[in-house]
Structures are given as C-alpha cells and as structure tokens.
Design goal:
single chain, 330 residues, alpha+beta, 30% helix, binds biotin
Length: 330
C-alpha cells in the first residue's frame, strides 16, 4: 500500500501552521493549484472540523487554534517515528474490530486506528474498557512481526514499557508497570493493553495491539466499583494533558520499544522494565490457569516470565496470569 497524498485541507493547515504571518487566499490558491473560491471552501470545511482560522481582506488567513482531535492532520507535526498512517473515527464499537478488518484487507505494519469514543471497548479476559468521548486515547495498531507465536505475549510487556516512557515524558508522572501489561500511576491503572494475534503454528500473521490510556477523563467516568482502582493522567497531574502531543509521544515510544524488541528480544528491555516495575520485592498473588500462586516478586526472566519466591524460598516462574498485590499498593 502506498501512502495517500495529503488532502488539500491538510496542506492548508500545514501552511498556516508554519507561517507566522497571515497567508493570503491568492498565495494558498497558487501553492495548491486551485481557485481562491476553492481555497475558501476548504477553509470553511476546516472551521467545521474545529480549526479557528481568522480571515482579513487585507492580509489573508491566520490559524489561531487547532482542535483537540487525534487525527492524522493534528498528530503528524508531532510525530518523529514512521507509524503515521492514522485512521481516525469520531466513534467506533472497538478500534480492535476495525484494525482487524483493515489488517485482513492488507493494511501494513504501523497502521493505527483511533477513535474518540468506543461504544463496545474491550479489555482483557472479556472485560469492558470504558471509553467516554473526546478525553482519552483509544487506539489499535496493526503489527506483522516476524516472530514465533510463542514470543508474542512478550509484546504486551514491551508496549507497556513504551506507554510508561511516553507518560513520563509527556506529563512528568512516575508511571510504573504492573506485570503483565498494565501501567499504573500512584498505584492506579491508567493504561490497558490488549494484544490479539492471528497465526499459523510457527508464523505470526498479524498482531492487533489495542491500547487505552485514561488521559483527561475523570474518575466519575468509571463505574463505582472501579473508582478506587483507576485514575487518569489529568487527575494524577492535577492539570489537563495535551492529548495530541501525548498520543504522538505514545506512538513514537511504542514504535521505539517494538523495534528494540524485534532487534534484541525482551532481554534487551528487561532491566528497564524491572527498574519501573510496580511489583519489585512485593508480595503478590497470581491467578493462573493452574490455580493461584502467592510469593514475593524477584523480577522477570529474559522471556518475560514473572519470577516469584514462595514462603519456603523456592523460586517459581509464571508465564501468564492476573496479579493482585497481597498488601495493597500504598
Ligand atoms: C485491559 O487492560 O483489559 C486492556 C484494555 C485495552 C483497551 C483498548 S482501548 C483501544 C482498544 N480497543 C478496544 O476495544 N480495546 C483496546
């Protein structure tokens, strides 16, 4: 698939964004190879999309405010990586569902689906991901890693690390990792990651990595039973977070950790992961398919398995499960 050309509207925004002085309709018309009337129509359409564009007869057009919207036009100027093919939706049932559809139609690695709102956002283990409109990040990535299906669970750890890096860089908050794939701030969940795979026995066909980040949402957005377990970046920081700048950081950091993982395996990221773990030295209970296992967390193995010592001092490896802290998060 080749990259689509930027639309005329996107090019107008790009010109106005970089220009300190107003730009005349005539100049825009010349640069875009269209009439001034056509430029005006695009300006009107941009205003309808939330751009504030001032116009004066004498001087021309000036961009004075951009919308808080996670689309390609807004994200592109902030992105430095190569994941910049973004399909934006005001509302979707689930970005995972749409990403799967695109991937089956051949969408390349790094394709991103974003929704401002999800009506059927999905979490791990059949849970719901609460996805109110216009305040958070809900996105799904199409990945096509040349990996054995056995290694794919490690990807969730890797994407968690990338998310935590992005949170620290964009907000200064101390984001910590809860094995296998949650990111916490102050002991409360801010990021959820859902990785789903289509594979043959020995070869991964595609991975859909769904990432939800509570950015500017409030605690009241969540059902009562979750309110003491979740937070958002804005609640934790005590100020609103620039969603567009955050999402761009997120995509760049997810790509950087993903590439490091493909090049060196999880072993190359393990010590950073452990440094930011919320669980190091803590007593936890892990619910696994083979029953519960309680012990003190020693760290991770090079393959991402959680290492625990039980009360008798014996070391155990857990490859999959759901963790609760035996003594709370304080
Ligand atoms: C979890 O912690 O249970 C994982 C939550 C994953 C939520 C994200 S939001 C974007 C993507 N679309 C979905 O329906 N789910 C994931």
């Amino acid at each position: 698939m080749t990259r689509p050309m930027p639309s005329a509207a996107d090019r107008i925004v790009a010109w106005l964004r970089t220009s300190t002085a107003p730009v005349s309709g005539e100049e825009l018309a010349g640069r875009l190879g269209m009439s001034r009337a056509a430029v005006f129509k695009h300006i009107e359409a941009l205003r309808a999309r939330g751009y504030t564009i001032e116009a004066s007869h004498a001087q021309g057009y000036r961009l004075t405010a951009t919308p808080d919207r996670l689309d390609e036009t807004e994200l592109a100027p902030h992105l430095s990586g190569s994941w910049r093919r973004v399909e934006w939706h005001a509302r979707l049932d689930s970005t995972q569902r749409r990403a799967r559809e695109l991937a089956r139609d051949g969408a390349p690695e790094g394709t991103v689906v974003v929704a401002e709102e999800q009506t059927a956002g999905r979490g791990r283990l059949g849970r719901t991901w609460h996805s109110p409109a216009g305040c958070n990040v809900y996105c799904s990535l199409v990945l096509r890693p040349a990996l054995s299906p056995l290694v794919v669970p490690q990807l969730a750890l890797v994407l968690g690390l990338g998310s935590a890096r992005a949170i620290r860089a964009a907000s200064g908050l101390e984001a910590r990792l809860k094995w296998p794939n949650d990111v916490l701030v102050g002991g409360r969940k801010v990021v959820g990651i859902l990785t789903e795979m289509e594979a043959e026995l020995e070869r991964v066909e595609l991975v859909l990595a769904g990432i939800g980040v509570n950015v500017n949402g409030t605690i009241e957005d969540f059902p009562a039973e979750l309110r003491d377990k979740v937070t958002s970046l804005a609640v934790a920081a005590g100020r609103p977070i620039d969603r567009v700048a955050f999402m761009a950081r997120l995509l760049d950091q997810l790509e950087a950790t993903y590439r490091a993982f493909l090049a060196h395996g999880f072993a190359g990221l393990r010590s950073e992961w452990e440094e930011w773990s919320a669980l190091g030295g803590r007593r936890v209970t892990v619910r696994t398919a083979d029953g519960d296992r309680t012990g003190r967390v020693v760290g991770l193995d090079d393959d991402g398995a959680l290492r625990l010592t039980d009360d008798a001092g014996a070391l155990h490896r857990v490859v999959a499960g759901d963790v609760t802290l035996a003594d709370g998060y304080a």
